[in-house]
Amino acid sequence: MRCVIRPHLTKGGVLEAMKGVKPEPVIGESVIIGRRTYPVKQVGQVITRQDRRDFTAGEVLRAMAQLGFTCPGPRHATAPQHAPGPLQQVSALLGPPAAA
């Protein structure tokens, strides 16, 4: 089953629907609504009241862009930064080898 995203949708309607909705962590495509950044699938689910499998991220992005919302490029989860091991710490303290 396909879901039609935009026929009667307005910018004000989206703002009203998303009011009070806490953004989920963004991984991938996103939409900025107000001062918050939401994952596109979350926005699509809220505004259509449909399951997230019923539409694509691209469909929601196109609809939001046509309504004038900012749709930044994809965000990817960043890997946690690990502390350097003892060998890396000593190497950093000693610096590069001296020229002969």
Please tell me about this protein's structure.
The protein has 100 residues and is mainly alpha-helical. It has a domain at 11-77. It is built from four helices and two strands; from the N terminus they run αββααα. The protein has helices spanning 11-18, 40-48, 57-67, 86-94; strands at 30-33, 36-39. It has a two-stranded antiparallel ribbon with strand order 1-2. Strand 1 and strand 2 (36-39) form a beta hairpin. The chain is elongated and about 75 Å long. The model has no long low-confidence stretch (mean pLDDT 84).
Please outline what is shown here:
By secondary structure, this protein is mainly alpha-helical. Helices cover about 35% and strands about 10% of the residues.
β-strand number:
2
Q: Kindly state the mean pLDDT as a whole number? A: 84
Distance between the termini: 72 Å
Element-by-element helix/strand order: HEEHHH
| Order of strands across the main sheet | 1-2
Please give the share of residues in helix.
25-40%
| Assembly type | single chain
Shape: elongated
